[in-house]
Amino acid sequence: MGRSRSGIPQTPDVVRGLRFWTGGIVVLAGAFAGQVAQAQESSPRTGESLILIVPELPANQINPSGRSVVLTAPIMDGEVYLGDATLTLGADGSASFSAARLLALLEPRLTAQADEMLLSRLAANGRLTSTDLAGAGITIRYNPRTLQVEMDIAPSSRAASVIGLGAALGRTVNYMEPARFSAYLNVRGSVDWVQQGEDDADEGVSAPVMFIDGAARWKGVVLEGELNLQPDAPGADYQRRGTRLVYDDRKHLVRWSAGDQLTVAYGFQSAPEIAGLGVSRRYSILDPQTVIRPRGSRSFQLDRRSMVEVRINGQLVRRIELDPGTFDLQDFPFAQGANNVELTITDDSGRTERANFNIFLDQAQLAEGLSEFAFYAGALAPLGFHGPVYSDTPAFSGFYRRGISDRLTLGANLQVDTHGWMGGGEVVLATPFGSLAGLASASHVEDVGGGWAGLLNFQRTFASGGISADTLTLSVEARSKDFAPIGIRVPENPYSLIVGASYGRSLTYDLYAGIDARYSQGRGDEPDVQSLRGMVSWNIAPNLSFTGDLTYEKDSRGTNLGTLLSLTYRLGRRSSLRSDFDSRYDRARVSYQTFGGTGLVSYTLNADVEHSDIGTGASVNANYYGNRAELGFSHFGIFERDLGASTGQRSSLRFGTSLAVADGAVTVGRPIYDAFALVKAHRAIRDNEILVDPTGDSAAASTGALGTALQPSLSSYSDRSLIISAPEAAINLDLGQGAFRLFPPYRAGYLLTVGSDYNVSATGRLLDAAGQPVSLVSGTARELDHLDREPLALFTNRDGRFGLVGLAPGPWRIELVGEEGAAYEIEIPADAEIVQLGEVRPVR
């Protein structure tokens, strides 16, 4: 929703109403005052192809002026507003406007056959008529009551419309542009103070440890790196963890990287430390708002305007009113497992139809045609004392997965270095009985030999409606003795076979129960391991919950039967108290946690006491979140049994802050995790505190004494609205946008300026050429240096006095309605808040 300078929300209904009254004034003026000649300048040019609408009413009811009238009219498809067109009303009651404009508005709504028919008629005749449109299944008319062109399109002539049922509805959004250059540097640190240790040498204040990371972004290329610092500490006093260049190709959804790679593994792969080049596509990082799982798609046709409801597993996910036409429902928000989908269609006559279908999917599936991959090539660079140790050992690691269909996903992976290789494949198949996934790999390690591994997994969810939902999972994994991914010189596979099964069921809204079993077959001297666990979760009351586990284990230590019980009591919305007991270790713990506030001046606090056979431990951990930094404190103490003599005491102090730069502006704030926004107050409002993302009596950040604020928690490639407020600002101050719409690239920074020069108020008195007051007239004031800006409305009283709010320094022109040729010019001085203009006379 936009907002005019006068503060009137520009909703479609308001805009339509303004068009109605404006158009009505134009027509009446043409009929009774003959003042529409100027409008002829915007009429279609001579020779332009037109659409001619034959009148359905007498001419004097459509155009009572008796002459041609030009006005801007909305084009409507039923209740849907398509756009505006410059319409000419003939003296005979006909209406005409640009045929090219009509076809441009209709193209996305028509089938290819209907569109081609209209194009051929236009090419043959040089214009279109109501009869031509009727041949394509379209009726068109001009409505003189609403001053708009109305159309009805037959369902058979409409192109299939896609209705997304997920969170994204496909709307066009104008996002703010990120800074051309931005950078940040995070500094986190900690200092430990040991009051009591195992020996005297351990006691005292330790050397501080600092963790530094940062990134700089210019023209879409990001340079990022990480560093550890511990001056005056034994061993290395610094360690560079990695440095790399990153570029995201958003058109093809591909990330390119060069330097110390952050490798991603899949299946049985390891994540080797490689320095070189990388290319990857992972939707969770590059396009987190895209549903990559198989999307349901059902097509249907409506002959009448209808209400359509879509329910998945009994839950209503979308209700939408649709005009006649053909539609594809896509992008169902499926849950993992079985999905019962019910489509209910109720037309405007009350007739109801239902359609049902079922689809099974698994989180590991990809929709048809989608692919994910990651490939890294270079040299092994294991992390050493001072940073990566670059070797001359070449290495490659990668995987590729693709959705062959909505039911079948295939994948392959490979890792190679000079000491060995590992490769394999993947299959994920959705069947009517459940989801079946399989992994198989083979490997070869230098001086060891070949090996193999396989995994088979089956999942099924029995969704029977209501509260009950059963989940069954079965898995089998097998490995040979010598199987290993790259980087492992001596394979270690103590178990040859691992079999597992689990089953869970929601018994009521407040009660859940489950059971799982696991068996591992030992290799050589390694004994077999068996385990069986039963669990229950019960919401006893709105503020009280219980969980319990009963376990049976048999391993090298023998047979053990144990229980794990937990009771949680919520002390209001922000605090809770929890008690745990584990019979296997005779361990009991009581813990308390709370938090206060959100954003600035907020805190978290956790404290617990734990007792076991070996003694008692007590700890407290607190964190404070300020505008420019995060602070933390923790203390841990160990005592003999039953809180006897102290045997160890340690305290830690932590801090975190950041320095951020965006297009020359600098600020300090809390640590940045991905993208950020630097908010700066305009000079006209620099004395007012600006709050970023205010919530209640707090906010995410504040400009404060520095005049700048930092929002450090923006996620890349995720839609975000940044709300701005200045609660103590004067009412006449122009804050500009009250919200900024952002879609941050990776590690991007924004420079957002709040406020503008349009904060000046002016009063004066308008006189005509004879020196008499201009009484009771309306007009506009337009800024001469920015003619593209919306003008300000102006009204005079009986004495010709007027007032204007929202002016900026510079020249302005005042023009009056009904005062032909009268114009006034005023000059607003710089650094002014209220201007007394005095008597203002026309310049012509």
Automatic annotation (TrEMBL):
Signal peptide: none annotated. PANTHER family: OUTER MEMBRANE USHER PROTEIN, SLR0019 PROTEIN. This is Fimbrial biogenesis outer membrane usher protein. It comes from Croceibacterium selenioxidans. The lineage of its organism: Bacteria, Pseudomonadati, Pseudomonadota, Alphaproteobacteria, Sphingomonadales.
